[in-house]
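[job 4471] stage=fold_predict status=RUNNING
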Amino acid sequence: MTVDTDPASSVNGSDGVTDTRFVNDIRSGIYSNGGTFLSYLGGDSYTPYLFTPSGQLILQTGTPVGLPPLPSYIGGNGSSFREGKQLALSPALDRYSANLVAKFEISPALVPFIEAKYVRTDSIGSQSGPFFFSGGTTGSPREFFYTTNPYLSAQARGVINDYYGYAPNEEGTFTFIRNVVELSNRDEKAKRETYRAVGGIKGRFNDDWNYELSANYGEFKEKTRILGNVNLQRFLLAIDAVDAGVAAGGAANGNIVCRAQVDPSARIAFEAAGNAAYAASQLAADVAACVPINLFGEGNITPNARNYLLQDSLASGKITQFVASGFVAGDSSQLFELPGGPVGFAVGAEYRRETTNYVQDEATAAGLTFYNAIPPFDPPSFEVKEAYAEIRAPLIRESFIHELSLSAAGRVADYKGATGTVYSYNAGIDFAPVRDLRLRGNYSRAVRAPNLTELFTVPGQNFATVGDPCSARNIGTGSATRAANCRADGVPAGYDFVYRQSLGFLSGGNENLKAEKSDSYTVGGVFQPRFIPGFSLSVDYYDITVNDVISSPSAQGIINACYDAADLNNQFCDLFARAGAGGGPRGEIPGQILENNLTVVPLNYAKLKVRGIDFEAAYTKRFGFGTFNTRAIYTRVLQNDSFLSPTDPGRADQALFELGDPRDAFNVNSSLKLGAVTIGHKLRYIGKMTPGAYENNFSKQGRPPQNADAFPIVFYPERWYNDVRLDFEATRKFNFYVGVDNVANEKPPFGLTGAGGGSAIYNNTGRFFYAGAIAKF
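[job 4471] inference complete, writing structure tokens
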């Protein structure tokens, strides 16, 4: 929890008070499962009242923690959102696969072949959590409640009337905030199918030359049903409940209906719909079927109201790929040989065509549901024609040195569209001064062309959790120009807006993207000493730089870049606008960024740089009673930097040591085979990582630490995982196995979920038992 902010003048971003605390049993002071009414009773923070299942309003209890005006609570009667209803750690997954491999040798020079594969996966899991609202979540100015709502208890009405100063029978408005867990968790149920078939001919000729001609066609199909999505047009109609008798000008009769059913002026289509015409076309039917809903306290939603609001969303997509390719490979043994032997070669060509499409159901695509509205995607095809050649020249073999050889390869690719023609190539050397030691080095240039999604995605709705850099709490944490730029952009003094929900923006593709280019260098060797039979050690140093990286600045990055630049005359300030003195069309306060105004597209502007050393050691030893095998793989990362600053291309953002990117990681796999029984053990190590940015606590490129008191710890602790397995080979055709993963039941540290983001590097299933059998026919 954030508990402190640092003044702009703080040395190394630290005022000596830790900015955050790790706490147990944290409860939100804003959202709750029954509904939260925020009041201000004096002091620095709002005072939350919670709706009980009976519809009463009670003060939230617990120990306040966090920054005003919206604190959280340790303990008490609030919602933790870890009650087993809202957080999915792993999806359910079923996988089916079938493979066919066949060939028929007419002669060594003519062998027709075919390979076919079918794979299907069925999965279900929560990616989004339950529906929630906060007064601005839907984007409609009607996302409020009336104090005359017949579902509102007299006690709760009294609390709200006293707070606003409404008369007892006055029809005032109020906002409350709620996670609506009764409306399900918006699970995504997906069916994915892949079909692939390769057919062709291959063979050998000219003694030691070979060839292959093939055609490959594959399809990937996906159908996703978002279960328990909410229709926002119906939501706005259903929350506006009235007593039919009162609405007709008489006494209350207990017949609660939707206002729109008795008052034509309340029949309003969803204002924030992306397709206003579609929303309007559904309005009459939505009004006629409207079922009022009681959201004041958990457990009060009737089945009819639930069914009225819920509308499963559907999405389907398809990708196809066709590849025609051919190559000839061989060596020069029939023509000439070098001192080390014949020259090996391969030449070939390939044509590849890919298509993709994606479509949502009409209501979701129109923006009527609580799910990102994505326009139909049916871009032009992706096509590329390629030719390549490879050569390996053995210069020396078993002479005064054991072996020396050179290799080289090149590929030219002509892409349809703006990418055009690109080249990739590599060259390498293998040098073995003695039989026990082989040294190697390689340089390669590789390219990655933009894919169809990056090129042609139609701008669609998206959301991001952001902090406004011009808010008083953030204005001192950026560049020296941030404060002046915020004022120059019309942000009023004293502005301290805090987002209670995500910022809506538009994201799409960029047809002018070029290919990414990478340069990589590797140097290493393999040591297999004859005096230690069964042992080998390989060590490789790698250095990879990727230029013209296709990257979309984040919504937060664009906003920050606008104000952290020297002035407002930059490309990032052109990507969004703020509300003027009169506010914005969707209730934005003066100075607030307008909803669905910011635009994010991918650009070729970034660079990536990684360096490290890979170690691999293996040892096999046969004893009279069995065989012992072990293999260890260790990676030591020396550099992992991203150069993603839109305003400062040379500014490195270090990922190394940050969550998900440890400096050190290794696996050790060992087994002992004793007759028909094999005992296996796997040791996995994950090194320490920082809970926030590496730059918080450490200098980078000569820059001082940025926020040295950001967290009460500098690193998350190391993690060791131990897995064991026992295999029993009953017969040559039947094998049985049992195992236990994560024997010590290690959990992700400090409340991390192990789901998504960097924390997915940790095991989140705990101690895991499994058993199985393999039968061969």
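[job 4471] summary: The chain has ten helices and 35 strands.
[job 4471] exit 0
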